[in-house]
Amino acid sequence: MKKLILFLIMATIFTGANAQAPQVIKLNERNLNRGSSLMQALQDRRSVREYADEPLSPADLSDLLWAADGVNRPDGHHTAATALNKEDVDIYVLLKEGAYLYKPAESELVLVAEGDHRELIRGGQEDFPIPPVTLVMVSTPSRFGVPDAKASMMMGAVDAGIVSQNIMLFCAANGLVTVPRASMDSAALSKLLKLEEGSIPVINNPVGYPVK
Questions:
Q1: Which of 24, 72, 157, 166 registers the highest number of CB atoms within 10 A of its CB?
Q2: Triad 37, 106, 114: Cα angle to 5°
Q3: Rounded to an integer, what is the distance from CA 30 to the centroid of its chain?
Q4: What Å distances lie between residue 91 and 15, 25, 40, 43, 114, CA to CA?
Q5: pLDDT averaged over consecutive 10-residue blocks of the chain (212 residues)?
Q6: For the chain, which residues make up each domain, given as ranges?
Q7: What CA dihedral angle connects 81, 170, 99 and 133, to 10 degrees?
Q8: What is the Cα–Cα distance from 100 to 106, expressed in whole angstroms?
Q9: Domain 22-208 homologous superfamily, CATH
């Protein structure tokens, strides 16, 4: 009996240690009948740097991403505006299980790298708490197709900021907390996320439930 119990314990540990992150996470259909009014969300918006140790529910994660930059019209346009409508911003989602790329048209997350890499958003701030999820906004200025590199970078920074604002308003309206941050290990993230040359991690938003 003791041998059987030991075997079951070891099997559980082994299985947990070797559990693989899903290659694709299908997101829920958006719920348009939730949250406070826009004016109330603006009143409630705060920058919060503490998060409950609890993963986001599938519904909250799905609606958060749709609010951030999801498809909101039959023609494929998004909730977040972009300069020249070039959709230069990609959202990467850092979860405990792995790093994922958000695909708005497909309403799914596609695995980019397995494992927990959320500490990369600390960017030297070692006391910053690890959140349940962090959204990293990456701009690819070459998508604008304009010769002025400085203008492309500025447009990309503005576009990433628009996505970040969508995230903050969603959080304020739905009982989540976040803070916009430029601090992160951009070089390590670029390597981890396999970004193409010239793509820039611009801003990140850690997201979680408030500490009670």
A1: 166
A2: 100
A3: 16
A4: 31, 14, 26, 26, 17
A5: 41 51 96 97 98 97 98 97 97 98 98 98 95 98 96 98 98 98 98 97 98 92
A6: 22-208
A7: 150
A8: 14
A9: NADH Oxidase (3.40.109.10)
